[in-house]
TrEMBL record:
Protein name: DNase I-like protein
Any GO molecular function: catalytic activity
Leader sequence segment: none
Endonuclease/exonuclease/phosphatase domain location: 28-134
One Pfam family in the UniProt entry: Exo_endo_phos
InterPro entries from the UniProt entry: Endo/exonu/phosph_ase_sf, Endo/exonuclease/phosphatase
Organism taxonomic ancestry: Eukaryota, Sar, Stramenopiles, Oomycota, Peronosporomycetes
Length: 192
């Protein structure tokens, strides 16, 4: 699972998603989750992603669309069978994750492997447990499709990393991030 917190500014966001495309992704399946800071379908006919605000007929992030194709992931709401007819029966508070002064949007979401249609049960939007300007999004998977003890998967590193020398680990991570250029083109003003 990769947690995403994308920049607000479109140009910075496109660079961010472009950098994600260059990551050495494993051959295994991936879940992307978090604050993507854009809506998928901003056109006027879509009730799924935005209420009020600016609308146009194209996706707000071509780079994220490319990343979705590269990783073969799909919006979990779509895999859960949440069609526009389904959304029209719900109150907006049940699926918008961000409420601003002029618009409400579904900025926070899960992307899961396209072949997980049977595994995605539903996606719930809930009030956060701590003060936040975004709602909490929870992905519910079918328990009968989760691995049994005999099917346990090997685990990668568990985060946060617990190390005997946390300062050294922190220095190494910072060095690696600086070498990769993380934050070079982005200022604190571009992040939420």
């Amino acid at each position: 699972m990769v947690n995403v917190y994308a920049p607000n500014v479109r140009q910075d966001r496109e660079l961010f998603y472009g950098m994600l495309q260059t990551w050495p992704w494993q051959v295994r399946e991936v879940i992307l989750a978090g604050d993507f800071n854009y809506v998928i379908m901003p056109d006027i006919s879509s009730v799924l992603d935005r209420l009020g605000g600016k609308r146009n007929a194209r996706s707000e992030s071509a780079a994220l669309c490319d990343l979705q194709q590269q990783l073969k992931v799909e919006d979990a709401c779509i895999l859960a069978g949440h069609t526009e007819e389904f959304w029209e029966q719900m109150e907006p508070t049940e699926f918008f994750t961000y409420w601003g002064p002029e618009a409400a949007s579904r900025l926070d979401r899960f992307y899961v492997p396209q072949k997980w249609t049977a595994e995605v049960k539903w996606v719930a939007v809930e009030k956060p447990q701590v003060p936040s300007d975004h709602q909490c999004v929870r992905l519910h998977l079918r328990s009968d499709t989760l691995p049994t003890p005999s099917q346990k998967r090997t685990r990668a590193a568990v985060y946060p990393i617990k190390a005997a020398q946390p300062e050294r680990v922190q220095e190494e991570l910072l060095k690696e991030m600086i070498e990769a250029g993380v934050g070079r083109e982005v200022s604190t003003q571009t992040w939420d």
